[in-house]
Design goal:
206 residues, alpha/beta, Rossmann fold, 3-stranded parallel beta sheet, 8 helices, globular, hydrolase activity, AB_hydrolase_fold
Length: 206
């Protein structure tokens, strides 16, 4: 549930967290959650897949399509949105990331690189579980990206946005000047409340 001064929006959600790529646990976790929903007969007409790391989400629709054909429309039609999506093994210059990192007091480039190595494990650099730039995005639901220009991940987010646009993949892009990593969590900020309003609107549209 997202609640703001003007609206309350509800959506059954599946959230991908920081499970290790090399253990392939994100997909298994997502399937377990979906099965739990089905067992409780909470099959809704609107479903939103949310997550901060799209590389978890990208393989899910095709995988679930094979087992749950009657529910695949939920992923394809209603989409997912993400705030500050992390892309492991960045192809952007280290200089660009380090420059933005100077302005981001929430997340550092050095810490991000250490976390990325731990997350990736022994998988090759071009594995799709590292980054959506290595994943097949055909069949993935429309994507909404939220980012701030002072987010250390900003250069990577721009790369992801541009790739989606080149492939004519449905993407809505929301950029906030001078906002840091996951700024919507700091709800005292006007920009955070505005972003939350936009997310609530996306859920209602879905």
């Amino acid at each position: 549930m997202l609640e703001t001064d003007r609206t309350v929006a509800y959506s059954r959600t599946m959230h991908s967290d920081y499970r290790h790529a090399h253990r392939h646990s994100a997909l298994a976790h997502g399937v377990k959650l979906y099965l739990r929903i089905l067992r409780r007969k909470h099959i809704l007409t609107k479903e939103m897949l949310t997550g901060r790391i799209p590389q978890h989400a990208a393989p899910v629709p095709a995988s679930l399509k094979k087992r749950f054909r009657f529910t695949h429309h939920a992923f394809r039609d209603h989409g997912f949105w993400t705030v500050a999506p992390e892309k492991q093994k960045s192809t952007q210059s280290e200089t660009a990331v380090d420059e933005v990192s100077k302005h981001d007091f929430m997340l550092s480039a050095h810490g991000l690189r250490l976390a990325g190595k731990a997350y990736a494990g022994a998988l090759p650099d071009d594995h799709h579980r590292h980054s959506p730039k290595h994943a097949r995005l055909n069949g993935v639901a429309p994507i909404s990206l939220f980012t701030g220009t002072h987010d250390v991940l900003y250069p990577d987010i721009l790369e992801l946005r541009d790739r989606l646009r080149r492939q004519a993949h449905p993407v809505r892009y929301f950029e906030y000047p001078q906002m840091f990593h996951v700024w919507p969590a700091v709800t005292a900020l006007h920009e955070a409340r505005h972003a939350i309003d936009q997310m609530a609107a996306l859920i209602r549209e879905g």
